[in-house]
Amino acid sequence: MAINIDWEHMTENIVDEELFCPICTDPFEEPVCANKCGHTFCRKCIIKTFRITSQCPTCRHTLTIDDFHPITTRPFLNQLNKILVKCKWCSQSNIQRGDFKDHIKTCTKTIISCPAANINCDWKGQPDQMQGHVEVCPLVKIQPTIVELKTIVKQQSGQIRFLYTIFKKTSEHHKEVCKEAYIKTGLIYCDVCKKQFTINEHKEWLHFCPEADICFNCVKKYFT
């Protein structure tokens, strides 16, 4: 898979060849297994491979990405978690891979992002520099408000799309109903307000009744 930016394997301590991905030749990360042929690869490795080919890299069996499932066998995953790695930031070695997440939380040399990175603060620095940055970063101060506004906009965008879909459906239906009525009678008649229209008064075949925003029959057809 892609080179990990935080750690590197100390592969001299690995003796079991079954723990290596045949694509990247490194120990498995997020291993997945093919249902049909049983071969195992890193999840990211096989996704990248399947952008080019639809064959198993080991046996050339035709597969799809849906033919792979995550390996959840505890003994196998425990072996992977016990592989020793070296932190690229502080150079500490002999860290079990399964414990690396705990190490990186306390590593004083790692590079971290501003808490407001999600609203475009591009600051990066070491953990002991974070507090000083947070105290002066204007984006950190307004982050809660920005996040709340983004949530509101997202919700309202969804509502607008929903209402537009309703309008489109009812408009199309009402257009056909009105068109048929005009062909038969020369007049367009609203069931709700009892008003009649001629073609010149009703160019778009859609009447907004003062008693109801849209035709009652349309609402009944699509929403009951």
Automatic annotation (TrEMBL):
Xref: InterPro entries: Ubox_domain, Znf_RING, Znf_RING/FYVE/PHD, Znf_RING_CS
UniProt keyword Ion transport, yes or no: no
Domain of life: Eukaryota
PROSITE patterns tied to this protein: ZF_RING_1, ZF_RING_2
This protein's record includes keyword Magnesium: no
GO BP terms, alphabetized: protein ubiquitination
Keywords: Metal-binding, Zinc, Zinc-finger
Residue ranges annotated for the RING-type domain, each copy included: 21-60
Signal peptide start and end residues: none
GO molecular function ontology, one term from the record: ubiquitin-protein transferase activity
Pfam (any one): zf-C3HC4_2
Protein name, per record: RING-type domain-containing protein
